[in-house]
């Protein structure tokens, strides 16, 4: 069984027990979070596609960590103009573990 859900304007394909990095969510480590914007749920019995979202579907996940990615370096340089600019950026992310995906029921 797998599902596709949307959070932070990105879509993720997950299975139960999977650990993924998503855009930062302001919830403490150890708490659970529900994702209701589910686009697709597939199991052995059926395939349920939302239009755009499945109304009663939900994914429950546990927040494992709140972290920062590696620093990326941004360099702007114009030759022969005595111009160069350096900048860095670290993107925040949340690590979650998928606990359960609601069963695919065609009666939704």
Overall description:
The protein has 108 residues and is mainly β. Helices cover 0% and strands 58% of the residues. It has no helices and ten strands. The chain is elongated. The chain starts with a strand and ends in a 7-residue tail after the last strand. The model has no long low-confidence stretch (mean pLDDT 90).
List the defining traits of the structure above:
four-stranded antiparallel sheet, mainly beta, 108 residues
Strand order, largest beta sheet: 2-1-5-6
- Assign a percent range to the helix content: under 10%
Let me know the average pLDDT: 90
Question: So what's the overall shape?
Answer: elongated
Distinct helical segment count: 0
Largest sheet: 4 strands, antiparallel
Pfam families: Ribosomal_L21p (PF00829)
InterPro entries: bL21-like, bL21-like_sf, Ribosomal_bL21, Ribosomal_bL21_CS
Keywords: Ribonucleoprotein, Ribosomal protein, RNA-binding, rRNA-binding
GO molecular function, one term: structural constituent of ribosome
Question: Layout of SSEs?
Answer:
Elements: E1 2-7, E2 10-15, E3 19-23, E4 32-35, E5 38-42, E6 47-49, E7 59-68, E8 72-78, E9 83-89, E10 92-101
In short:
The chain is an all-beta fold.
